[in-house]
């Protein structure tokens, strides 16, 4: 049985109601947990956050929200993308048409910000993204988005690594290179290294996010002339997440990347975490992480996407 609501029941996500919305998230997110601080950073703190595209649903005469939908519009190479970052309905109110109604309302609000080549995507919104797609364990969400016209794309893996209790502080000098936590004097050169050496267009923005922490969560490798030849970042998406990372092409296979990874895991361990999520891993890189730190595939995500043309004359 469908429930009837109007836009008067909707509020934008604000700092004032964040506690209640985060509790809704905690009570209803079955497979993935983040801290309140990370939740805030991924919603209100997203550089593309627009209150108009955040929908928090309240029943009449209630101060407890029953559904939340947060979308952002981000520019790609030649188009803009509406990306759904957070979408959940309280268990008690599911299968009553609420999700469909809110999803259509979000599309309606976002249409003016999109062009004919735009797309609607779930999950992947670099540089600030929680997950690279729909967790395959979220069966109901997967089929709901499919019913709304989003198509499945090639799956993406996250990896989980259990951090050894015996992990000690890695060496600061190894293989002829200095390994250290990044300091302000290397901010610019590291970003330049990332932009020039790696095709991924958002990596430099992801790395730059780590500079905002009291102790930046990027580690770098320097040659004898203080040139940056490798980097590894953690906690760009949520605390204890790992990535991105890369080493100068001519120096790959010498163990530098593995040492930078260990520095990140050691830093995560010192913050009280015993596991880390290695984000968005593809191809033979999975085998590398498995061999280096015993990482295993968990969980698998399915990107969901559709052209905005599908909804152009519908909502």
Provide a descriptive summary of the structure in words:
The chain is of the alpha+beta class. The protein has two domains: 154 residues, Gcn5-related N-acetyltransferase (GNAT) (Aminopeptidase), CATH 3.40.630.30; 110 residues, 3-Layer(aba) Sandwich (Aminopeptidase). Helices cover 26% and strands 27% of the residues. It contains eight helices and 16 strands. Strands 6-15-8-14-13-12-11-10-9 form a nine-stranded mixed beta sheet, with helices on both faces. It has a seven-stranded mixed beta sheet with strand order 1-2-3-4-5-16-7. Helix 5 packs antiparallel against helix 6. The mean pLDDT is 93.
Question: Any descriptors?
Answer:
315 residues, alpha+beta, elongated, Aminopeptidase, nine-stranded mixed β-sheet, seven-stranded mixed β-sheet
CATH architecture classification name of the largest domain: 3-Layer(aba) Sandwich
In one word, what is the shape?
A: elongated
N-C termini distance: 22 Å
Number of helices: 8
Regions with little confidence, pLDDT below 50 for 5+ residues: none
Oligomer: single chain
Q: What is Rg?
A: 21 Å
Mean pLDDT: 93
Helix content: 25-40%
Sheet with the most strands? 9 strands, mixed
CATH topology of the largest domain: Aminopeptidase
Beta fraction of the residues? 25-35%
User: What is the CATH level 1 assignment of the largest domain?
Assistant: Alpha Beta
Number of strands: 16
CATH homologous superfamily classification of the largest domain: Gcn5-related N-acetyltransferase (GNAT)
Q: How does the helix and strand content classify structurally?
A: alpha+beta
State the order of secondary-structure elements, H for helix, E for strand.
Answer: EHHEEEHEEHEEEEHHEEEHEHEE
Count of the domains: 2
């Amino acid at each position: 049985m469908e429930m009837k609501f109007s836009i008067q029941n909707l509020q934008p996500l604000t700092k004032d109601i964040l506690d209640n919305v985060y509790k809704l998230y905690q009570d209803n997110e079955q497979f993935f947990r983040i801290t309140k601080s990370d939740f805030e950073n991924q919603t209100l703190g997203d550089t593309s956050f627009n209150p108009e595209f955040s929908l928090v649903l309240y029943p009449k005469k209630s101060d407890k929200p029953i559904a939340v939908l947060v979308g952002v519009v981000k520019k790609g190479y030649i188009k803009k993308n509406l990306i759904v970052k957070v979408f959940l309905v309280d268990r008690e109110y599911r299968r009553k048409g609420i999700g469909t109604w809110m999803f259509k309302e979000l599309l309606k609000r976002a249409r003016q910000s999109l062009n004919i080549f735009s797309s609607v995507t779930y999950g992947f919104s670099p540089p600030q993204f929680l997950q690279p797609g729909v967790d395959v364990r979220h069966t109901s969400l997967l089929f709901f988005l499919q019913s709304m016209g989003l198509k499945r794309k090639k799956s993406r893996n996250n990896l989980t690594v259990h951090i050894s209790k015996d992990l000690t502080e890695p060496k600061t000098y190894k293989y002829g290179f200095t390994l250290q936590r990044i300091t302000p004097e290397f901010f610019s050169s590291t970003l330049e290294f990332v932009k020039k050496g790696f095709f991924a267009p958002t990596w430099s923005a992801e790395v730059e996010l780590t500079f905002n922490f009291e102790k930046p969560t990027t580690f770098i490798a320097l040659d004898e002339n203080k040139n940056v030849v490798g980097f590894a970042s953690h906690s760009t998406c949520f605390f204890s997440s790992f990535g991105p990372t890369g080493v100068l092409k001519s120096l790959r296979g010498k163990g530098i990347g593995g040492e930078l990874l260990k520095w990140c895991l050691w830093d995560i361990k010192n913050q009280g975490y015993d596991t880390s999520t290695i984000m968005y891993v593809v191809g033979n890189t999975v085998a590398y992480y498995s061999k280096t730190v015993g990482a295993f595939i968990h969980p698998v995500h399915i990107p969901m996407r559709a052209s905005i043309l599908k909804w152009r004359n519908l909502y």
